[in-house]
Amino acid sequence: MDKLTKIGEVAAVPSTAVKTSKIGIGFEKLDRGVFDPSKAYDKVAAIGVKWIRLQSGWARTEKSKGVYDFAWLDDIVDNLCRRGLQPWLCLCYGNGLYDEEAAKVFGAVGCPPIKTDEQKQAWHNYVVAVTKRYQGRIGWYEVWNEPDGKWCWKHGVSGTEYGEFVKATAAAIKVGDPDAKVIGGSMCLTGLGWLNDVLQTGAGECMDALTYHSYSPDEVGGFERVRSLRAVCHAFNPRMEIIQGETGTQSRDDGAGALRGGAWTPLRQAKFLARHTMADLFDDVMFSSYFSCMDMIEALNGVVGDKSSYLDYGYFGVLGADFDENGVATGDYTPKPSYRALQTIAAIFREDVKLAEMPLQFSAGKGSPRLLRGDDSFKDLQYHGFRKSNGSAGLVYWRSTELLTTSYESTVSLEAVKLPEQVRLVDLVDGSIYTLPPAMIEDNGRGVRSFLHLPLRDYPLLLTFGDFI
């Protein structure tokens, strides 16, 4: 960026000032009390995301049969709503009051209440109580978490079994709140066989949306996956929305959980976040949720009474934390580079921004003085255009090199017509705004402008035309 002139930074827009957005973040695992939400509310709201994912915590709420204590969840929901955030709730997990196996598992993770009539009725009653209580505050309910993974459906994964569970849970949701929306799936694996088994039960008829999780260094593979998921879902229910419910990676190489062991750093995490979030917008999902707000223990395979079994620290957070002897996140909850990346994207891609085809094309350009060769080809890029109602436009582009092996810098050139005169370049990871020097812009006098040797990185940059920022 050294040939450009920095003129400012993208201003953060708090969630209270955001009316609509497709950008969200996770606030999960409070059913297991793994961090202090009171220290996170303001910092998360300052990111400017809108959607925020919670987990309902049946075992934490019903500790005596038929008696619900929602005080802990009320406090979380009310604090988030007060700050302009829109909670959506994953209904989970099991309850040791009704299941001996669930009583042995930390947080009763992965123990669905489907074995006995008593379990089924207790789950129905609980779901009715939840949705009735949060009517008007929560409108979307997700049925379980990652049921296609053995860690969250511990007795053995079955799409048919989960499909029947979705139908029963959807019926309970509607008893508590007839206007509530039902989300199914929460699927973490890529195969379509499990999903087909789910939808063959008729579950698709009561699902307003499908969520999928995306833990892969390669965001490009997600484009085909989303097309496939959307096509399968629409074969059963053409009205079903697609939601990216979890994606994320670590900020260090020694964390537990998905993508563990990779050569992750805080900067690579920020690049991952920017690439995957923009890819979700390219896919036109209903909304996209980054996992997660906080460094925290994974706590998916813990055994009650064996603390060592669930002190498995994950470093997925946009906020960094320390940990006490029980694995609870402590410290000041410090923003990482990924925090600023999400804040930048949330500020720009909100309200009336729409995907759009752009009147431009990448060109060979002249020899790039930065490369001592020609510019990169558009064939190696990920890019898409966006429009806003004020007439402005933006082009997001990056090169999808391997994040764990390569730090990529290059240049590209393009030609554009019929776009606003004012041009800016925005770094979507750190929020810097630049102007282009005159030498990088050529006008042929007939309405075509060429933009020469623009910076190209292994993370998204945004070229804006008019007042897009």
From TrEMBL:
Keywords: Glycosidase, Hydrolase. Residues 60-351 form the Glycosyl hydrolases family 39 N-terminal catalytic domain. InterPro entries: GH, GH39_cat, Glycosyl_Hydrolase_39. Gene3D superfamilies: Glycosidases (3.20.20.80). Signal peptide: none annotated. GO terms for molecular function: hydrolase activity, hydrolyzing O-glycosyl compounds. PANTHER family: ALPHA-L-IDURONIDASE (PTHR12631), BETA-XYLOSIDASE-LIKE PROTEIN-RELATED (PTHR12631:SF10). Belongs to the glycosyl hydrolase 39 family. This is Glycosyl hydrolases family 39 N-terminal catalytic domain-containing protein. It comes from Oligosphaera ethanolica.
